[in-house]
Amino acid sequence: MRKINLIVIHCSATRADRDYPPSQLERDHRLRGFTTTGYHFYIRKNGEILTCRPPEKPGAHAKGYNAHSIGICYEGGLTPQGKPADTRMPEQKRALRITVRALLIDYPEARVVGHRDLSPDSNGNGVVEPHEWMKECPCFEVGAEMNEYTNYLKFKNL
User: Fold this and answer.
1) Tens digits of per-residue pLDDT, 95-123?
2) Do residues 69 and 9 touch, judged by C-beta distance below 8 A?
3) Amino acid 20: pLDDT
4) Considering the entire predicted model, what is its pTM?
5) b/e code 7-22 from CB counts within 10 Å (16+ = b)
6) Minimum mean pLDDT among 24-28, 47-51, 54-58, 130-134: which range?
7) Who's near 147: CB < 8 A, 6+ residues apart?
8) Which of 67, 81, 117, 119 is the most exposed, having the fewest neighbouring CB atoms within 10 Å of its CB?
9) CB contact at 8 A, 11 and 137
10) Which among 116, 155, 120, 156 is positioned nearest to 137, based on CA atoms?
11) How far is CA 105 from CA 32, 52, 83, 130, 141, in A?
């Protein structure tokens, strides 16, 4: 089994008022040259959690990090006008918590980050700041939100 040290959260960067079914996600990834969807998990607006590739197989979701990461993508991330925003439905937030908690049980040393948090620290201050993001994906502060899950798991000794 490969060593996992990152769980990377993504958004599909699609408008929240339009569906982006898994078949379209896979088609778009194949058009980019991937053999299948690059993410390990895809969370639909209704909270459905889909497995796109097994965690044992490296993803194609975060260049330079795929060998040791698992990618989770949620449907949405753009307003109906096409502006980046946290468009997650309550069902998606719950499904994301469930998925991350399950993965942290299997990979307790993994750090949970947003795709944008993997942007280069261009000013070298040790923090990837908003002006350094290469993209805004996943359109919410992953660190703050996910810390409560990791702290919960450590508290429960899971």
Assistant:
1) 999 999 999 999 999 999 999 888 665 77
2) no
3) 97
4) 0.89
5) bbbbbbbbbbeeebee
6) 130-134
7) none
8) 81
9) yes
10) 116
11) 32, 20, 35, 30, 22
